[in-house]
Amino acid sequence: MEAKEFLQQAFSIDQQINSKNQQLEALKALATSTTQAMSGMPGSPNRNIHKMENAIVKMTSLEDEIREDIVKLVNLKVELKHVIDGVRRPEYRLILEERYLCYFTWEEIADDLHCSVRSVQTLHGKALEAVKVPEEYRAA
């Protein structure tokens, strides 16, 4: 695994968490917007009387997945921070932190460093060369 791929893992997990949160909100909206048609006809004897229970089980399962992903993200960010701290040049560390831990855009980093986006991207390339990917990730 290359340095950039190693560092981008956190962003990918963060996106997965956001997607699952959106799915959860959609499930909650569906579960709370149940409507029942009123008619004089009796209900079907074959209907699923456990629909709400099934929805709650699915929501709980998704909430558990989100919690697991958050723990995974926090642990990964700690590891990424440790690796980034191993880079000697402070401006390289700052670029790596802002890009891979804070998810800043190139423009935001350039504004922070008071330079052009192109300069930031050039420094970023050099910063990636200074990153020492942990051995357990190199084979992946």
Write up what this structure looks like:
- By secondary structure, this protein is mainly alpha-helical.
- The protein has one domain.
- The protein has helices at 3-32, 51-85, 90-100, 106-113, 117-130, 135-138.
- The longest helix has 35 residues, at 51-85.
What is this entry, summarized?
The protein has one domain (3-27, 53-138). The protein is 73% helix and 0% strand. It is built from six helices and no strands.
Give the arrangement of secondary structure elements.
Elements: H1 3-32, H2 51-85, H3 90-100, H4 106-113, H5 117-130, H6 135-138
Helix pairs in contact: 1-2, 2-3, 3-5, 4-5
Write a concise keyword list for the protein shown above.
mainly alpha, single chain, 73% helix
Q: Can you tell me the number of structural domains?
A: 1
State the assembly state of the protein chains: single chain
Strand content: under 5%
Q: Which whole number gives the mean pLDDT?
A: 89
Q: Ends: how far apart? A: 6 Å
Largest sheet: none
C-alpha geometry: elongated
Q: Which stretches are poorly predicted, pLDDT < 50 over at least 5 residues?
A: none
Radius of gyration: 23 Å
Q: Give the count of helical stretches.
A: 6
Give the number of DSSP strands. 0
